[in-house]
Amino acid sequence: MAADIVPFRNRHALAQLNEVFAGQSAGRSCRSGSYSAYGDSVPGVRVLLPYLLGAASAFAVQFLIEIYVVPRVDTRKRREERWEKDVLDLGELLSTSVQEVAGKAHTAQWMVQLASSGQWIPEQDSDQLDGYLRKLKQDSQQATREFTDLIGVRAD
Length: 156
Fold this sequence. Notes:
This protein has 156 residues and is mainly α.
């Protein structure tokens, strides 16, 4: 009656397990001589061995997948994401007006160079000239900073 309640589908395997447990409770073991040393006459070993081998092989395969496959897939995903980000950054760079920003920076630097060398000096006294030169340098630095921000390499 109790065998009907047990959820095993293989009643023969259940009977063999019951025999093993009954034999162990009666004091029989491999050392006492009732069973051979290789487990040939132990019915529970034959029943459990395929399940244990299946569980061990599943664990080994899962371990190998975690060690070898998952890191390679993650590396490939990260490489693809970096490539997509770089392509998007390049498209953004090319779609903005790099030439316009570069021209502003070049012109500002050229004006500072001319004013500093004395080749181009507006009609002003020395105090006003120093202030004008300082303003040109600030404008040149700002234009160069904008250009550098636009095309500079960013380490993310």
